[in-house]
Design goal:
By secondary structure, the protein is an alpha/beta fold. The chain is 45% helix and 12% strand. A six-stranded mixed sheet has the order 2-1-3-11-4-14. The longest helix has 41 residues. The termini are far apart. The structure holds calcium ion. The site of calcium ion has 6 residues, from loops.
């Protein structure tokens, strides 16, 4: 009997434990549901503010030494007012950001989002695959009308930010000004041409004749043979003669990689390249028309050659005429369009890459409000707001002109445009895309940039290669192989390129040069680039 009672008591106890357990769960679920309901009632799927009751999100962002904390920036104060979303910024000095970011990603104290975060492709894939950061394409679809419209209008941007696994892990950042489409501006001393009675060269041979005249006819009139007909910096950005290879039908570039009809071509084994090297050695180097220091000098030495007391520089390659010879002297120099080669070819390269950054905004798994976060960041993909995020707000940096375009206000005294930008905006790495259509319509280019855009159009665009190798999202395995093969291979090509121009011997050494490249993995490298380009183009059309 006792034992039965005991047993019954135990049953009751167990039963009450079970009941109270159930009760607790029900209470928790109820709480959760009402929280969720409250959250939903607070969130506005369209319109502003985004939330009725303020919500706080934690974001981590780098900032430059000249920038105030983002919480102090006018542009973010305005966004908070409009959206009712409060950002608790943690600003890391940009120099320490990479280290801090990696520590956080490996820890359990993630922010809700990374802003202007500059995630690499490798980081996007790695942390996307392990779930540390979340895929964004569904959120974009539902809560980011500005960004969604941009991606529909510009499939190239969508393709560029889509990871090889089909997800979008990071949002784009881009100022699409195209000013880097041809970095190799080719400059000649027009005053010397006039003094020597020569017209602007139209062909490579006319150009060679001008260089000979510069060398032999004392155009600076000081009685000394001190003229430098042509100087450049071998295989350096904006200073190399890569563009001049175009006179033989195929422009070169620092990667030795161009695209025609969707096919990747390695320039440095092509017959056009070989012919160009022969010409540069026979006609130029052997005749003393190339500054021998073109293969060794640094930028300081190079730039000094434009500013010697007696003018000594005949022709050079650089991104901007003035930077080499100074503002006053620049009046005596002129840009050359691509020169027509011995077989009538006339073309200039289109720089590779240049697409959007794709790691500018990241949402982590710690974020309890991804919808609110997406709506908040989407404000920055509205073109006028994108411009203000990148350069600074209306009434501080810009005013609207009669056509509604943002035009620059005068700078405060004693501050350069570059410095001011850092004080009033998160700058170039911030989320937001300013497309080429927006530039000039929504927002003005800086005056220097306007000049460059005009020069590109006037001298180069008509001759420019139609395609380039875009900024492609590689698989980590592809990147590993590229990093394994490419640096040594390019180093060898560049060394040989210099030797062929200086010492000649292209004909005799060509076959062994090409077979060395094949042994170094050239074919595999080109296959990787082709596969990735095919994938990119397939995304473009999907
Ligand atoms: Ca002289």
């Amino acid at each position: 009997m006792k034992s039965i009672i005991k047993g019954a008591t135990t049953l009751v106890l167990v039963g009450s434990l079970i009941l109270s357990g159930c009760g607790d769960n029900n209470a928790k679920n109820g709480e959760k549901n009402s929280n969720q309901a409250n959250q939903e009632a607070n969130f506005n799927v369209t319109g502003l503010p985004i939330v009725n009751e303020a919500v706080t999100l934690k974001m981590l962002s780098p900032k430059s030494a000249l920038s105030p904390e983002f919480s102090e920036m006018e542009i973010f104060k305005r966004l908070e007012e409009q959206t009712n979303v409060k950002i608790e910024w943690e600003n890391i000095p940009d120099t320490d950001f990479a280290e801090k970011k990696n520590l956080l990603l490996a820890s359990s104290t993630l922010p809700d989002a990374f802003y202007a975060a500059g995630f690499s492709d490798y980081e996007l894939i790695t942390y996307g695959k392990d779930g540390t950061i979340i895929p964004l394409e569904d959120l974009i679809d539902q809560y980011a009308p500005n960004l969604k419209a941009l991606l529909e209008r510009r499939p190239d941007i969508k393709s560029s930010i889509t990871a090889p696994d089909g997800h979008i892990y990071g949002l784009p950042s881009w100022e699409e000004n195209n000013l880097g489409s041809n970095p190799f501006f080719h400059v000649i001393n027009k005053k010397w041409l006039d003094e020597l009675g020569l017209s602007m060269p139209q062909t490579l041979d006319e150009y060679t004749e001008a260089l000979v005249a510069f060398k032999t006819q004392d155009p600076n009139g000081n009685g000394k043979p001190d003229e430098i007909p042509l100087s450049f910096m071998h295989m350096q950005w904006c200073m190399d003669i890569a563009g001049l290879f175009g006179a033989f039908g195929m422009p070169d570039n620092l990667e030795h990689r161009i695209v025609r009809d969707g096919k990747v071509i390695f320039t440095a084994i092509q017959p056009e390249y070989k012919e160009a090297l022969n010409y540069f050695h026979e006609k130029w180097y052997k005749q003393g028309l190339i500054d021998p220091e073109s293969f060794t000098q640094d930028a300081a030495q190079y730039l000094a050659k434009g500013k010697t007391q007696d003018v000594t520089l005949g022709s050079y390659i650089w991104w901007e005429v003035e930077e080499v010879v100074g503002t006053d002297r620049s009046q005596d120099y002129a840009l050359l369009s691509p020169l027509k080669g011995p077989n009538g070819d006339q073309t200039i390269g289109r720089a590779n890459g240049g697409g959007p950054g794709r790691g500018a905004f990241i949402i982590t798994k710690a974020n309890k409000n991804p919808e609110i976060t997406m709506r908040w960041i989407d404000q920055q993909y509205e073109p006028y707001m994108a411009a203000q995020i990148h350069w600074g707000p209306i009434d501080v940096v810009y005013e609207k002109d009669e056509n509604g375009k943002l035009v620059n206000l005068p700078l405060p005294e004693g501050v350069s445009a570059g410095e001011f930008r850092q004080q009033v905006s998160p700058g170039a790495g911030a989320p937001g895309v300013i497309t080429i259509e927006d530039l000039g319509k929504v927002v003005d280019l800086e005056p220097r940039a306007q000049q460059r855009a005009k020069d590109l159009e006037q001298y180069y665009e008509a001759y420019m290669e139609k395609e380039n190798y875009p900024s492609i999202f590689f698989e980590p395995e592809e990147l590993n192989r590229i990093n394994k093969i490419e640096p040594e291979l390019i180093k060898y090509v560049n060394t040989q390129r210099g030797k062929f121009i200086v010492d000649g011997g292209v004909e005799e050494q060509w076959d062994s040069y090409v077979s060395t490249l094949e042994k170094m993995g050239l074919n595999e490298l080109m296959e990787i680039y082709q596969t990735a380009l095919d994938r990119y183009n397939a995304n473009l059309n999907s």
